[in-house]
User: What shape does this take?
Amino acid sequence: MKKEMKYNLKRMPEWSKHKATWLAWPHNSDDWPGKMAAVDFVFAEIVRHIVSGEQVCIIIQSESQKLKVRRILRDTAVDLTSVRFHIVKTDRSWIRDFGPVFLKDTVSDETVVCNFKFNSWARYKEWQKDDLAAKKLAAELNMPVINPFINDDHKDRFVLEGGAFDVNGTGSLITTAECLLDENIQVRNPGVTKSEYEDILRKYLGVTSILWLDKGILGDDTHGHVDDLCRFVSRDTVVLCQEKNPLDENYINLKENKELLSIMKLEDGSSINCIDIPVPEPVYYKGVRLPASYANFYIANNVVLVPTFNDPNDREALGIISDLFPDRKTAGIHSVDLVWGLGTIHCLTNQQPE
Assistant: This one.
């Protein structure tokens, strides 16, 4: 632990310059039953946009899957010169949550991998391969690894998913109480108090101000990930989902989150500029409400990829995000099939800073 803490760590915001974007190509049919073929081509569309401005690193399960993926990418006009493949066994494809949390040492500018424990959102049984992935990738990249523990006795690794928090890059982090503090459903770190969470987040992510929203959106099987709800788009500005229909189950929770943001302060004591972003009409598949959200966008070097749902609000959401990132192209990615896996673009991508 003493060796690990020599670093002065900082989580870079997503809009900072990337060296690469990481994805884990889908292979678990339980995530997208009956839709795997369609999801393959959504992944290809994501890669096609991102390679215009940075390298894309794709985790695959085998050489045979690599051949299949290369064929799909060629067929969809993807520039393969900017694509790299890494064979790493995983349980699923949600690399935002189990993949490396890349941090910068602000003294040496060295990139460090923070290897939080992943336990499949305290919900599913299959997580052991995913939990090993960050450490394996750090070894391939020859990067130092830090393993966060709850206490100094090093008995229990600290559980945290990448989609559970977002940062502004200057000291503020936003998350939800529903995800991290709930003591009855999907409990990540049993017995860990709010103040202990804050101490650990400050220690390992280089933040000073922790901003707690309350509940996430309906249909989210992570139990409240903030990346389906509220995202930093600059140092002092967030977009926040707001439901227009007062009869929708999301309406009250989202209004309460907006009230919380109105009184929150950033690390320098300044207020937060909050921009409303709409919520699409509820999306269902086989009677299950899915976590359809425009907040699950991904900011790449040259483009912002926004999930769309064949919804009248698609155009409004694309316009809002386009105005916020005038130096990048904004592209809608059709995500009706993708969201059947209970996540979309941000959940499936992971940025490595330059």
